[in-house]
Write a structure and sequence with these properties.
Elements (H helix, E strand, L loop, with lengths): L4 E4 L5 H12 L3 E6 L2 H10 L6 E5 L5 H9 L8 E6 L15 H29 L3 E5 L12 H20 L6 E7 L2 E2 L2 H5 L4 H7 L6 E2 H12 L9 E4 L17
Parallel strand pairs: 1-2, 1-4, 2-3, 4-5, 5-6, 6-9, 7-8
Bound molecules: NADPH dihydro-nicotinamide-adenine-dinucleotide phosphate (NDP) and 2-hydroxyethylsulfonic acid.
The site of NADPH dihydro-nicotinamide-adenine-dinucleotide phosphate has 29 residues, from helix 1 and helix 6.
Length: about 250
């Protein structure tokens, strides 16, 4: 993958960070994004010396900043071969009748509109070159709905729909579009969902072996190393202890 460029959004933790490290290991030059600049600096120290690295700090909700930063990349960073649309989170886990409008705004603005803003900036280069690979990180919450998941599930159903729509619209250009839809992955996800309540977040992953961020990065690696004529269109991946969004065997200890 020497001299090919990959862009990963939300590379400061969890799935995005694991994907960034895996892409760098594969030899991609890396553009990594997130809001926490110190985490982007730390990431730099974990990368192999022989790849180029461009950290970009922005909030995916900031439409103008996304357009100006990604629309005006330095010439030697402009030809993005792989886009991993990963940035996102759940905010809250409340019934629809008492949910917070601020949480709803965050999930729709980050998970859906942020993904669109980033894609809007990157896709024209891919269509011009008739090549590219877009990997959207959806969720089991984009395939099923669970109690109190309402708006997060809606945002991930939107990611699923956008992934399928992108694959159709970009089909004439030979661009691969993939959706990965994980079940429970132990990252900072629940810490964010429960607004820093680490005790509550910890209980989500107790009593069974959840997926690890690297499990998702391994799927990205497999997808990217398929021959040109093969696209993994849609992958749902669950911990063995999980049968659906709501069926989790917490007695199946690791
Ligand atoms: P983490 O909380 O560990 O990582 C989330 C990443 O998204 C961080 O790098 C964060 O960076 C970035 N991010 C969040 N909000 C913004 C924003 N407004 N602007 C820019 N970047 C942002 O969670 P995960 O790694 O688990 O989540 C990654 C993706 O995987 C999400 O889309 C999530 O919905 C999805 N997913 C997670 C599952 C899980 O069980 N963990 C299961 C299925 C899907 P920073 O804070 O520095 O901006
Ligand atoms: C994250 C997995 O089940 O918490 O998307 O929605 S879940």
């Amino acid at each position: 993958m020497k001299n090919k460029i990959a862009l990963v959004t939300g590379a400061t933790s969890g799935i995005g960070k694991a994907c960034a490290l895996t892409l760098a290991k594969l030899g991609y030059d890396l553009i990594a994004t997130g809001r926490r600049t110190e985490r982007l600096e730390e990431l730099k120290n974990e990368l192999p010396d022989d790849i180029r690295f461009l950290p970009l700090e922005f909030d995916v909700r900031d439409r103008e900043k996304v357009a100006s930063l990604l629309g005006n990349l330095p010439a030697d960073w402009s030809e993005i071969a792989v886009l991993v649309n990963n940035a996102g989170n759940a905010h809250g886990l409340d019934p629809i009748q008492t949910g917070s409008v601020d949480d709803w705004d965050a999930m729709i603005d980050i998970n859906v509109k942020g993904l669109l803003y980033v894609s809007k900036a990157i896709i024209p280069g891919m269509t011009q070159r008739n090549s590219g690979h877009i990997i959207n990180i959806g969720s089991i919450a984009g395939k099923e709905v669970y109690p109190n998941g309402n708006v997060y599930c809606a945002s991930k159903h939107a990611v699923d729909a956008l992934t399928n729509g992108m694959r159709m619209d970009l089909n004439p250009f030979g661009i691969k579009v993939m959706g990965i839809h994980p079940g429970l992955v132990e990252t900072e996800f629940s810490l964010v969902r429960f607004k820093g309540d680490s005790q509550r977040a910890g209980t989500v992953y107790k009593g069974y072996a959840p997926l690890l961020a690297q499990d998702i990065a391994d799927i990205v690696e497999f997808a990217l190393t398929r021959p040109a004529h093969v696209v993994l269109a849609d992958v749902v991946v669950l911990p063995t202890a999980q049968a659906s969004a709501t069926v989790i065997n917490k007695k199946l200890n690791p």
